[in-house]
Amino acid sequence: MSSLLDRVPDYVRTFERYVPSRPDPVLMRQFGVTHLFRLNNNENALGPPPLAQEAIAAFRPERGAIYPSGDAYDLRQALAIRFGKSPDQFLVGNGSCEVISSVIRAFCGPGDAIVTADKTFAVYEWVAKFSGIEARLVPLVNQALSPEAMLAAVTARTRIVFVCNPNNPTGSWWNRARLERFLTALDGRSLVVLDEAYCEFLDDPDYPDGMEVMERHDNVLVFRTFSKMYGLAGFRIGYLCGSLEAVDIVRRTHITYSVNSLGQIAATAALTDDAGHIAATRRMVNNAKCALRDLFAAMGLEYISGAGNFIMVRTPLSDTLLYRKLMREGVMVRTMTGFRYPNWIRVSLAQEQAMEALAKALPKVLECA
Amino acid sequence: MSDDVCVSLEIPAETAFACPVAGLADVLAGRAGFDQRERYRFQLTVEEFCLYLAGLAADNRPLTVGLTGKRHQLRASFVFQAANLSLGALNITSRATTGTRNDTDEEMGLLLAGKAADRFHLQHKGADRFRLEAEVDRAYPEAAPVRLPEGLRPPYTIRPGRDSAQLTQAAALASAVYPPWQCPSSFRTPGKFPDMVVDGQATCVLACDAKGQTAGLLAWSPCSEQGLYFSGPFVFAPPEAAANVARLLVDGFLETVARESYSIVLSFRATSDLPEASFETLGALQSFVDGRLESHPVVFRQLREDNGLAVWCAPQLENFLRQTYDRLALPRDILPVGAPAGRPRRDSLLGATYDRVRNFAELEPFLDGEDMTANLAAHVAAFRRQGIGTILYYMDLAVPWEAALAGDLLQAGFAPMAVLPQGGQADKVVWQHEQLA
């Protein structure tokens, strides 16, 4: 009478499944509010670019019966034109998470390891762990990824180094020189994934463009997403770009037909005319960032504010308690204990109304605590 | 990798197999390095449970037996199917000589098994499937006197506690410096603590000074599938550095467990060094210490966002739960459950553990029965005879029949003290017997 659980590998048995938050209407009922400002997932409060919105509106329902392009053909053509590369250098997935899985499956086997930071986007670590791959976690130094420490963690068993640039949740980033020194010192001993999910929020000329870096380093894969700047999180479109050889290898472990038709159409349209959307989003993010920096400074709260459409703040009470109290005020933030930042929260930077709601709710719940 | 000695087997539900399995248990206990007395207790436990459960098994369904020899403990598990399961003789209040029970030979065996083991646990696995676990602990010598480290100097750093000698020293230091209530019993026999760490039953972080001397300790163990119970922070650094060391220990603890499979951490025995801002206070437990009434806060925090649960609740508990959930801003759907219409068996079964040094006992319900109120009273009386003042009872609100026992508890003199969010399968209510000895 052995249980089902006895028959699964240890690394699956001991892995804790991720529990996503419940749908907004359920949360609003549970917390007794009539409106919820979603400041937890770094979504773009402006929504998708105008042409993507038009494409979504024009989607005919009968197309729902037709399978999507199995390898996101049109979207890869559009990406190739945008970045001046071959369409075969792109691989599109059901969000970056699927692409992360595909890369780990392609390059790692039993006994292998990945290297990443201890306080970064969690999915690299999760996928490695539930795949039976060791995740070697390198502590941040001064709230930033340390190239020296990451290099020191690389062994002969290391197959991939994940560099989240800019880093979620600290917003710190490596500049051109730092990244170049790192890649030179690594000397091709492992693959390097540059996760640039938030790159479009930066306009600093010293920020290294992964699309250019990979031309000089064929062990570099670049990850990007339509979920953040492009406001298409609901469609789950992420992609990677790398050398023809590397992408061909990843394609072998990647599930075709995993990306839905409407998402492909919307993402393709989004690339067509995004300059105004990016500029508007940057303005919104910068305004919100200034407002929250001022708010936290006035309240005497320590914060970490770098690149990206988010800001972290240390709370004078348990972050999970603060979450519940803010939910009662109709404001949803992300607790950071799971990112190994106990008693910090991360707040997405959004429009004025949402920031004002937070500015009103936070002092109120902290006073009552 | 674990160095447990393990044997698992499936045997026909026939009494003839009890003796060979007991022999196997003895070999395993010997192989795991336990002395004669513990080997005998383990062997007796296994044999008597095999005999009893063979008699219960429905339709000759086989019995699955698991035997594990850890460094600090021998453990036997039995997975079986039984309709109308009754294990009243396993209550720690059961006596063969009281004349109040019509003991059959089988119940005498059960009584012996219950006494030979240090503790047991019964899990209902659905329908008529159960898992019974019994544990026999290794005996360890008491702690030797220990001196506080001198000349501790910053910078203080945190490291995972793995070195056996350092863990032994840290546990002994905590026992010497902090009151018994705040220390797990394994600290009183410090050799046990590092063995539990090696066995994976306990985990800890140590604070060390610039020279690597022990400056602090925070330890934790699983208390349910969702919860970790922590002890500490124990700080041995000078007063001017105490707050910093405590903060490092707590942050090190939370960062270590942040991506593990647990939803909450909690403690009834957190020290006064605990940085309060990192935790929520759920309530307080009362005890008499040296004739003085003391209050022990129940501290807690979640490791991830709480997006709601449904809980069962008897009418007698509803006001308490609603007020508590409102105070804690916890979204909960409260589902009504009535008083039990009829009891499934005559004898209830309570799991009971106690610690005389800490003046503390804990009860949890394993099987409901007609005698539940009387059984609760009998347990309270038995603990009082041992001089134990603080008696707790845990109610898991995910289990309707457990939630329905609120009336029995009130009748037996218990009062709800705190709700542990996600402390069991769902939230757990901690009840304390109102009368403090």
Question: What this model shows, in words?
Answer:
The complex is a heterodimer of chains A (369) and B (437). By secondary structure, chain A is α/β, with parallel strands linked by helices. Chain A has two domains: 20-47 and 276-368, Aspartate Aminotransferase, domain 1, CATH 3.90.1150.10; 50-272, Aspartate Aminotransferase, domain 2. Chain A contains 14 helices and 13 strands. In chain A, strands 2-8-7-6-5-3-4 form a seven-stranded mixed beta sheet, with helices on both faces. Chain A has a four-stranded antiparallel beta sheet with strand order 9-10-13-12, covered by helices on one side. The longest helix of chain A has 25 residues, at 275-299. The radius of gyration of chain A is 21 Å and the shape is globular. Chain B has three domains: 1-139, Histidine kinase-like ATPase, C-terminal domain (Heat Shock Protein 90, 2-Layer Sandwich), CATH 3.30.565.10; 157-302, Gcn5-related N-acetyltransferase (GNAT) (Aminopeptidase, 3-Layer(aba) Sandwich); 305-437, 3-Layer(aba) Sandwich (Aminopeptidase). Chain B is 29% helix and 31% strand. In chain B, the strands form four sheets. In chain B, strands 6-7-8-9-10-12-11 form a seven-stranded mixed beta sheet, with helices on both faces. In chain B, helix 2 (36-56) packs antiparallel against helix 3. At the A-B interface, helix 2, helix 13 and strand 12 of A face helix 6 of B.
The appropriate CATH architecture of the largest domain in chain A is 3-Layer(aba) Sandwich
Low-confidence stretches of chain B: none
Residue runs with pLDDT of under 50 for 5 or more positions of chain A: none
Distance from N terminus to C terminus of chain B (CA atoms, Å) equals 45 Å
Number of H- or I-type helical stretches of chain A: 14
**CATH class assignment of the largest domain in chain B:** Alpha Beta
Q: How far is the first residue's CA from the last residue's CA of chain A?
A: 50 Å
What kind of sheet is the major sheet of chain B? 7 strands, mixed
Give the strand order of the largest sheet of chain A, numbering strands 1, 2, ... along the chain: 2-8-7-6-5-3-4
Count of the domains of chain B: 3
Kindly provide the name of the CATH class of the largest domain in chain A: Alpha Beta
Largest sheet geometry of chain A:
7 strands, mixed
SSE class of chain A? alpha/beta
* Quaternary class: heterodimer
Arithmetic mean pLDDT of chain A: 95
Determine Rg of chain B (CA atoms, Å).
22 Å
